[in-house]
């Protein structure tokens, strides 16, 4: 496929949140991960056909291993290709040795059981050549080499290849039913867009995509934590035609309203307080929100019911709403969790569970 065709097929980034592939760990073949093209709109995002991807789920055999003090690099081969996976060592496994010793005897020893549990968990995270590894993480390109920065990884016990065969049978249907189907805007979104823009859906998407990019670049570049609509309204003036001297106020505010709505739906911004003074918080710049999430995970991960998997995202959402803002959306929480995970402050143990490192 030519670069021109690729560019034409890349949808505006403000609509990526409508694609379920974008928020999932995509189970793609390694060869496709290696060949995905980078987005021209947002760094760190890749495209498999028309689907935006930034995090993947890979299962394969370890074919090489390089160990450093803080991390291990594993070469994972799924029979379609080999990709490098960078897996950070968990602080609590380092110098583990005999730091927790049992008392012996025939009575139940909590310390001894804890030692055995930690040793079992540690063994699942130590791999050698020939072991089967499952890894989830974000896709990165470092020194022109595509690799996976693992957020979760473990050794798979698969003596009769049941897990690998099951995945091999599952992958073709995933591609057929999901990845190879083009990303399309849901009908209700298409209807709204067509009604709002006489020029048609494609024109509206293009205009909305440009407006969204301008707003996101401004918020990121200026590291804006909070803003009001009239603080950024002037940024959109150049996008609209000027039959006289300036575009109508109604045109600008309609475009701004639609752009802010999509940014809210994506979780990039949210309103901490619903009041006539329309203030938006920028999720990734809201230090108080990030601190509240960390406090919830740090405190609740110690509770018995959350020690194994960590806290479910809905539990985190409920707790943060009580502590910080009743109006926090799940989408905004997911953006904040993704940022904390990329910064190695937390880790996802499943698709929906998180705990502190």
Q: How much of the sequence is in beta strands?
A: 15-25%
Q: Over all CA atoms, what is the radius of gyration?
A: 23 Å
Estimated structural class:
alpha+beta
Cα shape: globular
The order of strands across the largest sheet is: 4-5-6-8-7
* Secondary structure tally: strands: 14
**Biggest sheet record:** 5 strands, mixed, barrel
Helix content: 25-40%
List segments where confidence is low: pLDDT < 50 over at least 5 consecutive residues: 1-8, 92-103, 190-202
Number of helices: 12
SSE string? HHHEEEEEEHEEHHHEHHEEHEHHEE
- Span of the ends, CA to CA: 42 Å
Global mean pLDDT: 82
Describe this structure as you would to a colleague:
Strand 4 and strand 5 form a beta hairpin. The protein is built from twelve helices and 14 strands. Helix 7 (201-221) packs across helix 9 and helix 10 packs across helix 11. Mean pLDDT is 82; it is low at 1-8, 92-103 and 190-202. With 357 residues, the protein is of the alpha+beta class. The longest helix is centred in the middle third of the chain and has 21 residues, at 201-221. 39% of the residues lie in helices and 21% in strands. The strands form four sheets. Strands 4-5-6-8-7 form a five-stranded mixed barrel. Strands 1-2-3 form a three-stranded antiparallel β-sheet. A three-stranded antiparallel β-sheet has the order 9-11-10.
Characteristic terms for this protein:
alpha+beta; 5-stranded mixed beta barrel; 3-stranded antiparallel beta sheet; 357 residues; 39% helix; 14 strands; globular
Please specify the SSE layout and strand pairing.
Elements (H helix, E strand, L loop, with lengths): L2 H7 L10 H4 L6 H6 L1 E2 L7 E3 L2 E3 L1 E13 L3 E7 L4 E7 L21 H15 L7 E11 L2 E12 L5 H18 L7 H10 L4 H21 L4 E2 L1 H4 L16 H18 L2 E2 L9 E3 L4 H14 L10 E2 H11 L6 H13 L3 E3 L4 E4 L1
Parallel strand pairs: 6-8
Antiparallel strand pairs: 1-2, 2-3, 4-5, 4-7, 5-6, 7-8, 9-11, 10-11, 12-14, 13-14
């Amino acid at each position: 496929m030519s670069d021109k065709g690729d560019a034409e097929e890349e949808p505006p980034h403000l609509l990526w949140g409508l694609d379920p592939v974008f928020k999932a760990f995509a189970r793609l073949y390694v060869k496709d991960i290696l060949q995905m093209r980078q987005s021209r709109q947002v760094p760190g995002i890749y495209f498999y056909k028309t689907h935006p991807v930034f995090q993947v789920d890979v299962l394969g055999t370890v074919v090489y291993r390089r160990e450093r003090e803080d991390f291990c690099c594993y070469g994972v081969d799924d029979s379609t290709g080999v990709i490098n996976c960078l897996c950070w060592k968990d602080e609590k496994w380092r110098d583990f040795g005999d730091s927790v010793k049992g008392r012996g005897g025939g009575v139940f020893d909590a310390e001894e059981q804890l030692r055995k549990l930690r040793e079992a968990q540690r063994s699942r995270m130590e791999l050698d050549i020939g072991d089967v590894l499952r890894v989830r993480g974000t896709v990165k390109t470092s020194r022109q080499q595509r690799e996976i920065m693992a957020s979760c990884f473990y050794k798979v016990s698969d003596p009769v290849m049941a897990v690998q065969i099951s995945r091999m049978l599952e992958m073709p249907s995933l591609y057929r039913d999901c990845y190879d189907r083009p990303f399309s805007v849901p009908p209700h979104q298409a209807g709204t867009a067509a009604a709002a823009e006489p020029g048609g859906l494609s024109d509206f998407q293009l205009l909305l995509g440009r407006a969204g990019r301008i707003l996101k670049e401004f918020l990121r570049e200026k590291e804006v934590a909070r803003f009001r609509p009239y603080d950024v309204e002037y940024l959109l003036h150049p996008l609209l035609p000027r039959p006289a001297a300036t575009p109508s106020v109604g045109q600008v505010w309609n475009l701004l309203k639609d752009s802010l709505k999509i940014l809210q739906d994506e979780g990039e911004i949210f309103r901490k307080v619903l009041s006539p003074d329309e203030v938006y918080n920028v999720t990734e710049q809201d230090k108080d929100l990030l601190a509240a999430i960390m406090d919830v995970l740090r405190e609740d991960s110690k509770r018995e019911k959350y020690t194994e998997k960590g806290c479910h995202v809905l539990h985190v959402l409920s707790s943060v709403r009580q502590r910080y803002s009743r109006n926090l959306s799940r989408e905004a929480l997911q953006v904040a969790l993704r940022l904390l995970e990329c910064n190695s402050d937390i880790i996802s143990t499943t698709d929906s569970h998180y705990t502190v490192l």
